[in-house]
Design goal:
Length: 406
């Protein structure tokens, strides 16, 4: 047992493997550091892990959501069309909708799961709705059967925001393979990381092709591997247009500058090599904490695991209930004194994030998302915490409640 007075629980950790260091050095020596062979290798390995036919890497998780949405312009969507998103998420989900040129339409969450309340989606659908973006918040899979059946009924696309859901499983299928496309974040706080980065998974080659164009300014050339860039070879497609244009400088759609580079992909490939090990450790921590936490009801509760799912062990969320006689600031401040790093569990985007005020929502429109926005916290469950760290956290909460609950 570690000396408890010296215990420190950080929110995140990052493991840079020897393999990653070797591949980064190799990329630097090769002279090619922008999107190339390592990005393609990372995409292939990530797709295999997610259980999808393909994956396209981009610069961030936010861009992954944004570009997946922007694909829809090639498939009938118009600028200003509506996209349904949960009222509670990391703000990036809704930022991405606006950045893609759509209007976010918010739906309240289910307070037990922290995810969009599927029963409230139908009344938010209009003739301009094009897609639903369920977020698997804190790695807990959203109610995908209900969402997919509504999407089928109203001919909507489903784009999973799986930023926090690496390793989550829903009814035997991996999260990231449950809709038309899915977006993952590869930022350092996430289970698979490239430092900064994001990736879109899909089973539809026509979507992957458009994302390759979108991430590179909307240009007309969007091959999986560019022969010019790989071996200075001759590209038969380049001047094949009858209008005598170079397809590298034909811009078919409004694009973004959002490629992943070779150094990031190299870190990611090194990370994938230890993914199963990390996932196992993090999941052990998460389920251990979830089990131990039951004794803190009715003051504090966490999410539940259903028999048909595995939760992606991104973090450990907990919610201060109405019965508690303390505030979130008091609890987070106490944890901080104990060297336990915590984060608040986001905000209700339309009513608690000021930038969204122009959409006209008002406090009270999303009671469950607002409650979580005022009363919930999360801490890390990463591979360096271990059982001692989990026990230290549980003991600290116990001590706090014994002094403050009643
Ligand atoms: C639910 C959700 N969506 C999107 C993102 C955006 O990812 P990134 O920070 O890589 O842009 C995050 C980031 O953590 C997230 O939690």
């Amino acid at each position: 047992m570690k000396n408890k007075t010296k215990m420190k629980i950080s929110f995140g950790t990052v493991t840079i493997t020897d393999m990653a260091k070797r591949l980064v050095a190799d990329a630097l020596d090769s002279g090619r550091i922008s999107c190339g062979k390592y990005v393609r290798q990372f995409e292939k390995e990530f797709a295999r892990l997610a259980g999808t036919k393909m994956a396209v890497a981009v610069s961030s998780g936010t861009d992954a959501v944004c570009l997946a949405l922007a694909v829809l312009y090639d498939f009938g969507a118009k600028r200003g069309d509506e996209i349904i998103v949960p009222a509670l998420s990391f703000v990036a989900t809704a930022n991405a909708v606006l950045q893609a040129g759509f209007k976010p339409v918010f739906v309240d969450i289910d307070r037990q799961t922290l995810n969009i309340d599927a029963l409230k989606i139908e009344s938010a659908i209009t003739s301009r709705t094009r897609a639903v973006v369920p977020v698997h918040l804190m790695g807990k899979p959203a109610d995908m059967d209900a969402i997919n059946s509504l999407a089928k009924k109203y001919r909507l696309y489903v784009i999973e925001d799986a930023a926090e859901a690496h390793g989550a499983v829903y009814k035997g299928k991996n999260v990231g393979s449950l809709g038309d496309m899915a977006a993952f974040s590869l930022y350092v706080a996430h289970i698979i990381t490239t430092g900064e980065g994001g990736i879109v998974t899909t089973n539809k080659p026509e979507f992957a092709e458009v994302i390759r164009s979108l991430r590179s300014h909307g240009r007309a050339c969007k091959c999986e591997a560019c022969v010019i860039n790989t071996n200075s070879g001759y590209c038969a497609k380049r001047f094949s247009r009858s209008d005598n244009q170079d397809i590298r400088f034909v811009f078919e759609r409004i694009g973004f500058s959002s490629k992943m580079n070779e150094l990031e992909a190299a870190i990611g490939i090194g990370n994938l090599a230890i993914y199963n090990e990390i996932l196992k450790e993090r999941r052990k921590n998460l389920y251990y904490l979830m089990n131990k936490f039951k004794k803190f009801s009715p003051y504090l509760v966490t999410i539940k695991k259903e028999l048909y799912e595995e939760i992606g062990p991104h973090a450990f969320p907990f919610i201060i209930q109405e019965q508690a006689k303390f505030t979130r600031n008091q609890l987070a401040g106490y944890l901080s004194k104990k060297n336990i790093d915590s984060r608040t569990l986001f905000s209700c985007i339309p009513t608690q994030c000021w930038g969204f005020g122009f959409l006209g929502y008002k406090i009270g429109d999303f009671p469950h998302a607002e409650y979580i926005g005022n009363n919930a916290i999360h801490i890390g469950v990463h591979q360096d915490i271990g059982k001692d760290g989990c026990d230290y956290f549980i003991d600290s909460i116990e001590e706090f409640l014994s002094r403050n609950a009643k």
